[in-house]
Design a protein that fits this description.
9 strands, 11 helices, single chain, Phosphorylase Kinase, domain 1, two-stranded antiparallel sheet, 2 domains, five-stranded antiparallel sheet, alpha+beta, Aminoglycoside 3'-phosphotransferase, Chain: A, domain 2
Amino acid sequence: MTNDQLQAAYTSATGQVAGQVTRLPGGAGNRIYWRVADVATGHTAVVMELPADPLKSEEASKQEALGELPFLNVHRYLERIGVRVPRIYLDDHQRGFVVLEDLSDRTLEEALVNGDRRQIYADAIDQLALLRAGAERAPDPSCLAWSRGFDFDLYQWEFEHFLEYGMFARGSTATAAELQELRVVFAKVSRELAAAERSFTHRDYQSRNIMVLRGGEQVVIDFQDALLGPRQYDLVCLLRDSYVELDRALIDEMLSRYCKAMGIGDVAGFAAFFDLLTVQRKLKDAGRFVFIDQVKKNPAFLVHIPASLRYVKDALVRRSDLASVSEILAKHVPELR
């Protein structure tokens, strides 16, 4: 979009005089975000510029033929169940943009620099529990999340994504026998994960997708790829975050907090599944970061591979049933030795 188009969008949405336009840093997605300001009043809003094919999910999914902009569809559902999401000032997605509330640049990751880490994570856990409990009480087939989910095939695709980019693309020389063993165990893990009860899952509920306002209120963003998954999935995203490493004591405290909020009695069993899912998700992340570098030509995420794999290493120690995976990966992935 040109500056004139961005300013016109801002004025149409807010009634304010548009002035300064600033492009905001982007993540791994294809959307572009612009901050537009009325210099005289200091009022700002964010224009979300949509990609050429805005109906296509940016994550792997069997459901690709979507009839509505995923961001708007999922936003409507989250708002209905009481989750704090950005306010929409103007929906003009047919012309390629949506004008949103400006949540500032303070992500949860940024808030941790000078904030109370325990309280910040407690608030994020409480909102996640509110989201999940609300979704389990009020499933809604009109929300796109209910049309797609983490099943055996998707978990397996992500494991293969790790093999392709997290191992082969980094120079792995694993033997055919080793790859066969990995695939056998990965398939077993995928079956166990896919058998878990599923409901609304953000898919990437982590420190860069939660904004923290000046008064401490947390706002959830980047939810357009939501789907159905187990309760532990978003917890892995938050507590095994590739961008902010947490010690195990805090992780266990937050798992217990979530279990209490959700009325889950078997905390140990819940944590064991959390560790199993950690292996799957963080291997996927490590491979994805290489993919983003080699295919999308964005090397910014490579620095987060070691943290992702440290989480895998810790989880493998806790899952003795994955000893063969641990042994093979230690030979071919330097961070897992």
